[in-house]
Amino acid sequence: MEWGDTALYRTLNKALRSEDRQTLKIWFPYLKLFDSALDKLPTVKEVVWRGIPMDIGKNFTVNKIVTWWSINSCSSSVDVIKNFLGNSDNTTLFLIEAINGKKISGYTEFENENEIILRMGSRFRVKSDPLVQKHGGYVVHLIETDENNDQISPS
Predict the structure, then answer these.
(1) How far is the C-alpha of 116 from the C-alpha of 44, rounded, in Å?
(2) How would residue 152 be classed by pLDDT, with cut points 50, 70 and 90?
(3) What is the pLDDT of residues 41-83, one digit of tens each?
(4) What fold characterizes domain 43-155?
(5) Is 153 a residue whose pLDDT tops 60?
(6) CA gap 59, 30 in Å, rounded
(7) Alpha-carbon distance 89 to 66, whole Å?
């Protein structure tokens, strides 16, 4: 959803990532509704891809547990993500073994992007140190965890 030059998800994710938790208060009714809607969508347990146009891969080390507080868009197609990243240098490509992804491709403008949403507060274990690519970018392998699946031993 967009209004003017601003997309709703950018504004919401900025609030979710903010250290000032007060900025989230106005979003609570929407977040509750959004989370309830996600509950009704099919859950996917598969490899998904996410691309970031920044070289943040060096911040991920083997077995580190990370939490993503924002809502994250991924794709089951690496080609979609490569197209999104283009020929940019210094990017980070995440290969994510998702267990709680939500398939939304039937509800988006771009159904062919095979979009999967990872919920706010998703937790991951870094499976291995990042792969550094020739052009300076990184590939980071993450495994989604939950309360019932929190083992940290390498697999």
Answers:
(1) 8
(2) very low
(3) 999 999 999 999 988 999 999 999 999 999 999 999 999 998 8
(4) Toxin ADP-ribosyltransferase; Chain A, domain 1 (3.90.176)
(5) no
(6) 32
(7) 24
How is 50-110 classified by DSSP, letter by letter? Answer: EEESS--GGG--TT-EEEE-S-EEEES-HHHHHHHHTT-SS-EEEEEE-SSEEE-GGGSS-
Looking up tokens 């990042």, which residue turns up?
130
Place of tokens 């977040």: 31
Please give the C-alpha separations between residue 14 and each of 70, 77, 83, 121, in angstroms, as whole numbers: 8, 26, 24, 14
pTM of the model: 0.85
| Confidence band for 149, pLDDT divided at 50, 70 and 90 | low
Give domain limits for the chain. 1-40, 43-155
Report whether 76 contacts 47 (CB < 8 A). Answer: yes
